[in-house]
Structure formats: structure tokens, C-alpha cells
Amino acid sequence: MAKKKILFECQHCGLTTPRWMGKCTNCGAWDSFIELNEQQQEVIKQTKSTSATSAKAISINEVIEEEVFRFSSLDKELDNVLGGGIVPGSLTLIGGSPGVGKSTLLLKIGSNIASGGKNVLYVTGEESTSQIKLRANRLKSNHNSLYLLSEIRLEQILVELKYREYDFLIIDSIQTIYSENITSAPGSVTQVRQITFELMRIAKEKDLAIFIIGHITKEGSIAGPRVLEHMVDTVLYFEGDSSQELRILRGFKNRFGATSEIGVFEMKQEGLVSATDIASRFFNRNSQQSGSALTVVMEGSRPIILEVQALVSESHTPNSKRQATGFDNNRLNMLLALLERKLEIPLSGYDVFINITGGIKITETAADLAILAAIISSFRDRAISKETIFIGEVSLVGDVREVYALDARLKEAKMQNITKALVAKKPLEKSMIKTYIVDEVTKLLEWY
Questions:
Q1: Long-range contacts of 329-335 (CB under 8 A, 24+ apart)
Q2: Which of 3.40.50.300, 3.30.230.10, 3.50.50.60, 2.40.110.10 would CATH assign to domain 292-447?
Q3: Where are the alpha helices (DSSP H) in 294-405?
Q4: For strand 262-268 and strand 271-274, is the pairing parallel, antiparallel, or unpaired?
Q5: What is the value of pTM for the model shown?
Q6: Secondary structure letter of residue 361 according to DSSP
Q7: Distance CA 59, CA 77 (A)
Q8: Minimal CB count within 10 Å: which of 11, 63, 350, 387?
Q9: What dotted CATH number matches 76-274?
């Protein structure tokens, strides 16, 4: 009698081991391993054999280039994030916190595509078709080519895809769909792996563009196995608070375009729509108070003017607080240490709070100079003119270094009637904005 093979699988990342472990060595999750039965082990073998296809190596000069065709979603912001439009045969994952607008956006996109005569199938595993209909009435998204299917069984979804030819498929959500051939629960690693592989096969075979919605955990990652993000062609994340009007759609993976672009949406009565005038949404020019400074950051190819807010107040505890919203806390601590060392500003006895308006998270270093300017402004209680922007990266030795795409940033500032710019180096192109060279942080004091 053959010995039974025992296999355990992590329900967070999909790592398989022959013995149970309390902590996953791959993703660090605790108590996430479960034992797989023979049927589940067979599914893993099948998916691995499906993905591992044998091929003969050829010279790169012999490879025939395939032109990527796209069709528009009739939404400017989504097309911008995707790299110009939706690619037929692509598999896209969109994640975000509950209530941020994932279902609303995709229902609107499905309606846009259906209005052009293409057949769209919206599969809902969490809501009934009548609930989707109520939302469609509010969004004015009723079209004859938009079909609804309330189903969580993968096999029935495949039957519908055989019954009618579709050009666009929406799965809401991937955690609710399950296959009757697998005994594990919906949302498990085995279920998600098998379902995603099947959807990928259908997408390539039928040249069908598929969007799947994924829930996220409290840490901000897609709920369920990480293997899901590796299997799809594109990964998009919705950022923003459900209590705010603005939402940001950011690309984290895109096999058909760049991942640095973002889309800005606005929640209105008719649903999520592309924000038309986002330039003035992230800063307030009417209010001129201490602790506020303007900067320009690059989100992909798009320059955006942001307002950096700082609050410096005396600390009444032995350990001063340093908190930042939308900015890296470790870099904030470095900048504060630099202020104390180079400018001799005693911040050790003060609480320092930083906030980036609009819900955008700054990931580049071009805002360092604006952070320092806002902190000094709050500390000295002196307001900075709203017609001045600060652009520059601050190093540990106290000098200010130039950033990329300076001309594009200054051009955007000019369009918003900014008249002065503090930069580390003169721009290459002649600008209508007066530029002042600040190559050391000590020169910031000249502006107060």
C-alpha cells in the first residue's frame, strides 16, 4: 500500500511544505497552514503542469512582435492608468477598501463599453441582480448589451460564456467564486488559484478582457493568496477614504504599459467620474496661514501641486510625537534631525505633525524642501506666500539636490498662477516663473 503524501499549504501566500509550521517562512503569517487532501494536491499538480509549458529557445532577433490592440473604456482616467485603454485577452485585478467605489466604477465602465455595442457580462457573487439594477438606475447605466449574472459557481459562469459571445467580463468578487470540483472553501488558495487559471485560459482563448474585484485586508493588500497578483496581467489599487470625494486609482503592475500613472476620480451622485479639474483640488490658495507650503510632485507623467501642512507645538510628554500622513515617517525624522543640526532649531521638545492634503501619499523626495519650509513656518508662526513653491531633495549633509522633470513641474505651477519657485538648480528651459536657487537648507531662513 502506497504511503499517503501529506502536504500543507499557507492560506496567505500559497507556500507548500511537507510538514505543518506555525509561521510561514515566505510571508511571515502565523497559523496559516492547513493540510491538503488528495484532490486539492491534484489541483496544484494540474495548475503547475498547465503553467510549465516546454518551449525551444530562439534568438531575440527571430521573435515576431505582436501589436497590442486596445479599446477605450470611455473613461479618460482609467484609460490613462491602463496605458491607453483595455487590452482584449487581458486579466486585470482591481483592489480597494470597502465602499471606495470598485463596483460602482466597473459597473459604469461596463455600461460605457455596452453603449458601444459590445456585450458585457457583470457577474455578482455578493449582491442580487435587483441590487445591481438599483445602482445602474442611479448611474444611468442601463443598456441592452449589459448582462447581469448572480452566480458564485465557476462552472455556471463558464456555461454562460459559451452561451453568448462577450467582449468584457466583470467578476465581483474573486473571493466569492468557487469551483464545484474543489472541496476547499471560497477564497482559499486552492480555489483562487484554480479559478484564476481558468479565467486566464478563457481570456486568452476567447480574446476576452476580464476585470476581477478583490477585497483588501487591513494591511492594505489583496485579501487571500499573494499568488493572485502574480497571475494576472494588471493590478490596480483604489486609494482614498470613502468619506472623501476624491479617489485615486494607482497601477502596481501592468504588462501592457507603465505602472507609474494614476487616475483621479470624483464620487458624485451619478457615480465615480473622472475628475476634470484636479489641479486645484489638492491645495487652497485662499487661506494663507503658517505651517503651509506648496510643492509639485510627479505621478507618472502628470505633475500635481500639493499642499504640505505642518503643525509644531510644545510637547508635554518626555517623548515628543512625530507623525506624518501621506509622508514617510522615517524620512520625517531624518529631516527633523537635519533641522536641529544645520539650522539649530530646537525641535526635541516639540511635537511635529505633517499632513499631505488630498489623500495622496508622497513616495518621491522632491517634497523634502517643502516639508522643511512648512515646519519652519509653523515653528516661527510665519505664513508663506501661496504664490511660492518649493522643489528639491534634501540630503543628510544639508545640501538641496535637483529633481527630475523640473521643467514639467514649473510649467504646471505657471498654469496655476504660481510666480516664484525655490529650486536647487536653474531649469533647462526658460520659464516664466522666477526661480531662486536654494542649494543649502541654511538658505531657507532667508525666506522668513
A1: 331/365, 331/368, 332/371, 334/396, 335/368, 335/371, 335/372, 335/375, 335/394
A2: 3.30.230.10
A3: 329-342, 368-380
A4: antiparallel
A5: 0.76
A6: P
A7: 38
A8: 63
A9: 3.40.50.300
For 96, half-sphere exposure in the C-beta direction (CA atoms, 13 angstrom radius) is 25
164, three cell numbers: 453568448
| DSSP codes joined into one string, 389-404 | EE--EEPTTSBEE--T
Which DSSP helix (H) or strand (E) runs through 303? strand 302-314
Residues 6+ apart with CB under 8 A from 209: 86, 87, 88, 89, 90, 92, 167, 168, 169, 203
What CA–CA distance (Å, rounded) separates 332 from 322?
Answer: 8
Which 8-state DSSP code applies to residue 115? H
Position 207, amino acid: D
Separation of alpha carbons 392 and 411, rounded Å: 16
Helix (H) or strand (E) holding 423: strand 420-423
> Which residue bears the cell 492560506?
11
CA end-to-end distance (rounded Å), the chain: 85
Under 8 Å between Cβ of 71 and 88: yes
Backbone angles phi, psi at 354, to 5 degrees: -125, 140
Task: Return the SS3 of 350.
Answer: strand
Q: What contacts 123, CB < 8 A, 6 or more positions away?
A: 149, 150, 151, 157, 169, 170, 171, 172, 177
Residues present in the chain in total: 448
Nine cell digits for residue 303: 505633475
Question: Residue with C-alpha cell 517623548?
Answer: 319
Tens digits of pLDDT across the chain (448 residues): 456 677 888 877 777 788 888 888 877 778 878 777 766 666 666 665 555 455 688 888 888 877 888 999 999 889 989 988 999 999 999 988 888 888 999 999 999 999 988 999 999 988 889 999 999 998 888 999 999 999 999 999 999 999 999 999 999 988 889 888 877 777 777 788 888 889 999 999 999 999 999 876 555 555 455 667 888 999 998 877 666 677 888 888 899 888 878 888 888 777 777 776 666 677 777 778 899 999 999 887 788 899 999 999 998 888 889 999 999 999 999 999 999 988 888 888 899 999 998 778 888 899 999 999 999 999 999 998 888 999 999 999 989 998 988 888 998 888 888 899 999 888 877 766 888 899 888 888 776 6
